[in-house]
Amino acid sequence: MTARDPLRPPLPRAEFIEWLREEGASRYHDAHPVHVAMHEGRLTESELQRWVLNRYYYQTRIPIKDALILSKSEDPVFRRTWLHRITDHDGAQAGEGGLELWLRLAEGVGLERELVASCREVLPGVRFACDAYVDLVRDRSLLEAVASSLTEFFAPDLMSKRIAAWERHYPWVKRETLDYFRSRVPRARRDSEEAIEFVVAHANSYALQQKCVDALIKKTEILWHLLDCVHAACIAGAARSA
Amino acid sequence: MTARDPLRPPLPRAEFIEWLREEGASRYHDAHPVHVAMHEGRLTESELQRWVLNRYYYQTRIPIKDALILSKSEDPVFRRTWLHRITDHDGAQAGEGGLELWLRLAEGVGLERELVASCREVLPGVRFACDAYVDLVRDRSLLEAVASSLTEFFAPDLMSKRIAAWERHYPWVKRETLDYFRSRVPRARRDSEEAIEFVVAHANSYALQQKCVDALIKKTEILWHLLDCVHAACIAGAARSA
């Protein structure tokens, strides 16, 4: 029986979740050299800045892909559940929300807010990867789009680790600068629980379960490639200043 | 100088708004025979039901097209302003929102809630027209998508007229059944004011102004065709029962 056998019955709930968890965890970007170096205190100020500036472009794609997810659903109950994700990033009013907190993080590491907000210095490869995320959500089914969000499963641990690492290794960054990471711990937990329940309920064939795993893997590739690009730019930058 | 002359300067604000208003008003579906008959008390119970059932499909497209509009914007401020439209229709919680009010309207005119919610008896042509609205919003620019919403300019008058007409001509419909129409009067006014400000600010060439007018005209055709389909079905229904 091959993995794509159309007659294969769906995995039971626990096994399907374990499959997603394994494929996601083994590819999650917490193990990327840039994150490892960041959390061991080995990034320079300009390397941290480069990461913050480029990752902002990813942040700006989040409400866009969440609006696309909303637009793919026929169910007001689902949409009501998902809508808060847009508000989480855009804020309920001016001066609130994840995008604003990220811009404060950018200022906290010494970047010009306007430069970061403009996205004009974002690396081309970072743009390709983040745009590929929006394309994935636009082009695939609602189920796959939701499954691709399941990297948030792993986010709370990464955020908690990051807060501790930054407080220890980068004491020049003010404490309140890290509010974005703090805000994500409970939200990513709640969001990933909502998403996993939806995915488990709707992936009612093995073929659909496989598609969910594929979408999650693609998402891990997107997150990983973003860091690859930042990494390459850091190496090139170090070579120039040597 | 032709209408499509690329060198033609943009119309001043007031003239552009007047152009939109004229093109929209002259094609608005308040003048459609179905609405005229409805407001003169000439629709039978089953004809009213047919309209309510079919129009529900249009209602279900609204949060979907509004989510698409959100997904086309790069501006958190705009998205924050537009987001409430989705909540207006989906409700902040179960039992609230425009879709729920429309289902109560359906029950109020004697339809099964579940039948209407399923959309399974929606006329094919109604489906084509409503899906064409979603396609328009998906495929055209953010500016054109917003311009297509400007039929709401004319909605408050139509809603007010409708409430009075239904209370007078269809006394068998309970008063609270009309809450959907009541709720739309202030909301459509606010929404169309927000939309017109956006359109005026962003249509900064004559070519863009023309595109906005085109999108608004297309939208009036969609609303009109929905009623054409209902009309044809009513005539066929009357012939069958004659």
The helix content of chain A, as a percent range, equals over 70%
Rg calculated over all Cα atoms of chain A: 18 Å
Strand portion of chain A, in percent? under 5%
Poorly predicted ranges of chain A: none
Count of helix runs of chain A = 11
According to DSSP, the number of beta strands of chain A is 0
Shape of chain A: globular
Largest interface: A-B, 25 and 25 residues
The CATH architecture assignment of chain A turns out to be: Up-down Bundle
- As for the CATH topology of chain A, it is Heme Oxygenase, Chain A
State the major sheet of chain A. Answer: none
CATH superfamily grouping of chain A: Heme oxygenase-like
* Count of individual domains of chain A: 1
Broad structural category of chain A: mainly alpha
Assembly annotation: homodimer
Q: Using the coordinates above, name the CATH class of chain A.
A: Mainly Alpha
Overall mean pLDDT of chain A = 95
Give the ordered list of helices and strands of chain A: HHHHHHHHHHH
C-alpha termini separation of chain A: 56 Å
Structure described in brief:
The first copy, chain A, is an all-alpha fold and 242 residues long.
Tell me about this structure.
Two copies of one chain form a homodimer. The first copy, chain A, is mainly α and 242 residues long. Chain A has a single domain (18-28, 44-241), classed as Heme Oxygenase, Chain A, CATH 1.20.910.10. Chain A is built from eleven helices and no strands. Chain A has helices at residues 13-27, 33-39, 45-71, 76-90, 98-108, 113-118, 124-139, 142-148, 155-169, 179-202, 206-241. The first copy, chain A, starts with 12 loop residues before the first helix and ends with a helix. The mean pLDDT of chain A is 95. The A-B interface holds A 60, 63-65, 67-68, 70-71, 73-74, 76-77, 79-80, 83, 86-87, 89-94, 97, 99 and B 60, 63-65, 67-68, 70-71, 73-74, 76-77, 79-80, 83, 86-87, 89-94, 97, 99.
